[in-house]
Amino acid sequence: MTVWDRPEPPTRPVPLDRERIVAAAIALADEGGLEAVSVRKVAAHLDAGPMRLYRYISTKEELFDLMVDEVQAEILPGEQPGDWREALRILAQRTREAALRHEWLADLLGGRPTLGPNGLAVTEATLAAFDGLADVDTVMRAVETVSAYFIGAIRREIANLRAERATGLSKHDWQRAHGPHVTRMLATGRFPALAKAVYDGTDVDAETSFATGLDWVLNAVAAKLTPTPT
Amino acid sequence: MTVWDRPEPPTRPVPLDRERIVAAAIALADEGGLEAVSVRKVAAHLDAGPMRLYRYISTKEELFDLMVDEVQAEILPGEQPGDWREALRILAQRTREAALRHEWLADLLGGRPTLGPNGLAVTEATLAAFDGLADVDTVMRAVETVSAYFIGAIRREIANLRAERATGLSKHDWQRAHGPHVTRMLATGRFPALAKAVYDGTDVDAETSFATGLDWVLNAVAAKLTPTPT
DNA sequence: CTCATGTCGATACACTGTATTGCTCGTATA
DNA sequence: TATACGAGCAATACAGTGTATCGACATGAG
User: Fold this and answer.
1) Given A124, A156, A217, which is nearest B217 (Cβ)?
2) Which residue numbers delimit the HTH tetR-type domain (chains A, B) (predicted)?
């Protein structure tokens, strides 16, 4: 029985951990969207059988949770500026940028409570920015309001971006982009305000739109933090 | 060959239209969530073969679009109050109520542009509320900001509601509700601001939280509509 | 060397969205 | 009245999904 007759010893399965799994899932989602993430495909990228992943996650939804938490790490800023306004703005912007890097994030944002370590850290950072500026309840309202705003704004931005892409890369020509349907609807005269907005409105890029709205919301928060004394 | 020997003539398929299809899909989603909506199940509820639906929609995503548009009809208020603030508040509240009736709406809100007739009508109503109060661009920013807020807020509310429900109907006991994990994390001392918020914060019901944030955002909009004269 | 343990791969199941195919039946024409 | 046509439908099929179950097998302990 020479070496040539004996088969090589069975290769041990490549070591695995959540980090690797999540990384593979994120890679798949980054190009192909959330629906490109299937247990089988993730496993294949790791040279593993599909069922093996279920030692690390117990359901596919948990995988999504891990993906979101992983991306939250990208959002955490290194240093917190002293100015609460600046701190909040940075957090919002970084969330937006993360969503632009990982468009699938828009599908998940706000969909489930973020209780992972990084998610909690982001919440902590947000709350910490208000430290000492108001009572706990006001701070809670402020955090909720600001984050509700930017989650909604990010979702819409990504949704529009995809819609534009789907209608063949037309840049900012709303009506032609979304095809004859909207044009026809507007022509019915049943939507005068909308028609005016579409035809007379200035095309403003998504970033400034986001920043403007954010600024408004921060103004609102500021007004509540330092209530105008009688 | 008596009547008794002859089989009844083959029953003509029950007539179908988008309205019926969408209604069936909504019924399924209302109890069971979006994932309970499958082409086969919708068709079965209508005594039809699955493939028949593809005469009315060309993809499942289109079915979702129709569902959203259908629910938007519930949002449209009958009469528009003259006060823009009141008008916006009503639109936001009605959207929230619709989402509470149809929780799956939270999963779809903001996910795609709403170009259906009812969706356009809602946008029209929103824009119309600002008629004559500011230039087109300011109005656009205002509409975007307010709707971004309430979409984000509704999503979070539904997400929390589901999370609570999943952890066994515990009412407002955040830490106990989400199990030992959060408690343990808070005990690490790495999230002081969060811990303070959880332990010292007042439990406020979702509706007032929503209304409060909405009010703040509306304040911000108001400030931009009537800029303080020098 | 043997045995227990825990992990993995294979297999299986119920189900998904949708393309294709050919039948069937109501209608229009000859 | 007989025939051809064409639309709308059901049936079938396919590739893929998430996940339960189970048998084998390598690894560590005794």
Assistant:
1) A217
2) 15-75
pLDDT for the residue B1: 52
3-state class (DSSP) for residue A199: helix
Q: Which of A6-20, A100-114, B71-85, B156-170 has the lowest mean pLDDT?
A: A6-20
Whether A62 and A21 have beta carbons less than 8 Å apart is answered as no
Tokens describing residue A109:
């944002």
| B77's tokens | 């208020």
CA nearest to B75, candidates B61, B56, B85, B89: B89
How far is A188 from chain B, CA to nearest CA, in Å? Answer: 11
Is B124 within 8 Å of B140 (Cβ atoms)?
A: no
- Yes or no: say if B114 and B123 are a contact pair by the CB < 8 Å rule: yes
pLDDT in tens, chain B (230 residues): 555 555 555 566 778 999 999 999 999 999 999 999 999 999 999 999 999 999 999 999 999 999 999 999 999 978 787 899 999 999 999 999 999 999 999 999 999 999 999 999 999 999 999 999 999 999 999 999 999 999 999 999 999 999 988 876 555 555 565 667 888 999 999 999 999 999 999 989 999 999 999 999 999 999 999 765 54
Å: B40 CA to C16 C1': 9
Which residue from B151, B202, B216 is facing A224, i.e. has the nearest CB? B216
Six-digit token string for B59: 């993809």
Chain D bases closer than 7 angstroms to a protein Cβ: 8-12, 16-21, 25-27
Q: Which helix (H) or strand (E) holds A106?
A: helix A105-108
- For helices A136-166 and B136-166, give the axis angle rounded to 10 degrees: 110
Give A130 to chain B, closest Cα distance, Å.
Answer: 9
Give the CA-to-C1' distance from B21 to C19 in angstroms.
21
Collapsing DSSP states into helix, strand and coil, what is residue B210? helix
Distances from the Cα of B183 to the Cα of A121, A228, B175, angstroms: 14, 38, 6
Q: Retrieve residue B149's tokens.
A: 């807020």
Task: Say if residues A221 and B215 touch (Cβ distance below 8 Å).
Answer: no
Protein residues closer than 7 Å by CB to strand D = A 10, 12, 37-41, 50-51, 54, 59-61; B 13, 16, 48-52, 55
Measured between alpha carbons, how far is A49 from A52 in angstroms, rounded to an integer?
Answer: 6
- Determine contact, residues A86/A47, Cβ cutoff 8 Å: no
